[in-house]
């Protein structure tokens, strides 16, 4: 319940950009600003005297007012792109932190957006608090930043917002921490404005018709188990090598009696079993003999083309009707939510570019996209494979999530990932049969894919990748993942 007592007005809170621990700024006599971190130096360009003089304040926090202070904002933006700054909200340079904003995405800068005091606000159903070390942090898979809670009044106000409330109502609370905080959290997608009469249906009132189909744990899993929407360490970091020995490659045998299956091996392995054993990952591709468009067409035809369109058989007459479009691989509930996108570097007969595979027409459709993003996507794959060059073709599997979550609750995203595995192996086997190289990629940047396609990450998003191309004759590149 909110308290009836009113508080005397406190000074407005402001945002201050502060350098992360371990980062120092240096100024040259000519106005050059560089940052030292992780044993390296990065130069950020030349700035006016006003900015370089204030650079020393970065350790405690530089007042940050985006539009009015263009040159300082530019320096902060450049530092933020390297993940070197966090933003503190406080009632003055020496006041205690109310909340600290840790950007999770490169393009993010916090904004305090205008709030209509009569319009209700509510906590997003995707927001959650947890302990991180000795901090209490507020996060959401929708948010582009993580919020470190530093003051009990902030935590108390967030608890009030499990129901939709207007700023006017919140102001009556004994521990109201200020409208600036609400503005920051609204911009950060931790709060949302449900609109009039939505109290009973907050789920439907948040976001769009695609977001409503997502379960909380699925959206969190999607954003945290891929790159692009968080700043946590990820990859083969051996983070627990000091704590435990590596689990053995082969499980120790159960103690019960064993039936020896080797005695039953009478016939030689079938052609298919031989193909399964011949399949392997190829990471280095032959620059002089790229894969051809005809081979790409055969691969897609064999692995991913739509075979028919039909009504799904349903046992229960109360179930809604659903059209299905079967392809050569199995899919839970015949969902077939996976779409293929091709980032092409070298392919004989096909120009470098980004294409969608229209599995119904068996056609490639060019998608106009930024050349830098195309290069970034191909180079990410090269890095993931530890390969000498970018792949000739990089196939991204993107899920139309709603195809699965419209029907299935609780395990929709897990089902999508199982489908990725099924399709990955299907592509691997087609490639092995055609004697072209393939290598699965463990993690992709979901934000980069969203930028390249213009599709929101929760609508149709990257969930898997596989590199394709003509392998060099002897592919002895070591395992890099
Ligand atoms: C889901 C999945 C993700 C993978 N990710 C990577 C990767 O990011 N980089 C890489 O070089 N290989 C990757 N691989 C390939 C594996 O390293 C490879 O399958 C494994 O070492 C066995 O070798 P083989 O495929 O040649 O039989 C991946 C494989 C799978 C199935």
Provide the descriptors you would attach to this structure in a database record.
481 residues, NADH Oxidase, 2 domains, seven-stranded antiparallel beta sheet, 21% strand, globular, disordered C terminus, binds flavin mononucleotide
Map the helices and strands.
Layout: E1 14-19, E2 24-27, E3 32-37, E4 40-46, H1 49-54, E5 62-63, H2 70-81, E6 85-90, E7 99-103, E8 122-123, E9 128-132, E10 135-139, E11 145-149, H3 152-160, H4 167-171, H5 179-187, E12 191-192, H6 202-205, H7 216-224, H8 271-278, H9 293-304, E13 310-311, E14 323-324, E15 338-344, E16 353-358, E17 363-367, H10 371-385, E18 393-400, H11 402-405, H12 412-434, E19 437-441, H13 446-453, E20 460-469
Antiparallel strand pairs: 1-5, 1-6, 2-3, 3-4, 6-7, 7-11, 8-12, 9-10, 10-11, 13-14, 15-16, 15-18, 16-17, 18-20, 19-20
Helix pairs in contact: 9-12, 10-13
The protein binds flavin mononucleotide (FMN).
In whole angstroms, the N-to-C terminal distance is 52 Å
The number of domains is: 2
Assembly of the depicted chains: single chain
pLDDT average, as an integer? 92
Describe the structure.
Pfam families: Nitroreductase (PF00881), ThcOx (PF22767). InterPro entries: Bacteriocin_Proc_Enz, Nitroreductase, Nitroreductase-like, SagB-type_dehydrogenase, ThcOx_dom2. One of its GO terms (molecular function) is oxidoreductase activity. Residues 122-230 form the Cyanobactin oxidase ThcOx second domain. Residues 276-470 form the Nitroreductase domain. The chain has 481 residues and is of the alpha+beta class. It has 2 domains: 14-208, no CATH class; 271-312 and 323-469, NADH Oxidase (3-Layer(aba) Sandwich). The chain contains 13 helices and 20 strands. The chain has helices spanning 49-54, 70-81, 152-160, 167-171, 179-187, 202-205, 216-224, 271-278, 293-304, 371-385, 402-405, 412-434, 446-453, and strands at residues 14-19, 24-27, 32-37, 40-46, 62-63, 85-90, 99-103, 122-123, 128-132, 135-139, 145-149, 191-192, 310-311, 323-324, 338-344, 353-358, 363-367, 393-400, 437-441, 460-469. It has a 7-stranded antiparallel sheet with strand order 5-1-6-7-11-10-9. Strands 17-16-15-18-20-19 form a 6-stranded antiparallel sheet, sandwiched between helices. The longest helix has 23 residues, at 412-434. The protein is globular and about 85 Å long. The chain starts with 13 loop residues before the first strand and ends in a 12-residue tail after the last strand. The structure holds flavin mononucleotide. The site of flavin mononucleotide has 12 residues, from α10 and β19.
